[in-house]
Amino acid sequence: MTPDLVTALRPLLTAEASAEAYASGGDPRDLEQTVWLRLLERLATHGPPRAPEDWLRRAVRAESRRARRTARRERPYAEDPADTGTPTPEQRVLSTARHRALREAVVRLPGRCPRLLQALLSSKDLTYREIAGELGISQGSLGPERSRCLGCLRRLLTPEVAPREVRG
User: Fold this and answer.
1) SS (H, E, C) the chain
2) pLDDT tens sequence across 67-82
3) How much is the pTM?
């Protein structure tokens, strides 16, 4: 695509996309991007249009109609069809494997970290005061100790767990 063609068509495309997108309830920037893509596809197959402004107006209207048709056909689900509320056998197996890997990693931790994290993971739902009494440490040092132990656990599990994807 030549820079002159882009420069010449950008204001017209912005105006046309704004008018059509708001009329159809869409986002004008999405419509602009789609029309730019259609122009690139056309340039690759048929070369530049003879009357670029007319082609652009027709392309904007065609893409807007397509978006309206798609929006009319799409219906949101009343509820998530895959969410049955009860875990599938596969989900239970994966959950059990994750819990096993976590418990095995906790046992490998240094110092009193295994006892601390086992107390935190306990089904008894112990308070900080109860955990501190059980471990024989002050309640004030429990937070920093927990933080240090979780850092160690994170480093132990890093090779076993896929890294999170960056969002944004």
Assistant:
1) CCHHHHHHHHHHHHHHHHHHHHHHCCCHHHHHHHHHHHHHHHHHHCCCCCCHHHHHHHHHHHHHHHHHHHHHHCCCCCCCCCCCCCCCHHHHHHHHHHHHHHHHHHHCCCCCHHHHHHHHHCCCCCCHHHHHHHHCCCHHHHHHHHHHHHHHHHHHHCCCCCCCCCCC
2) 888 877 877 777 766 6
3) 0.45
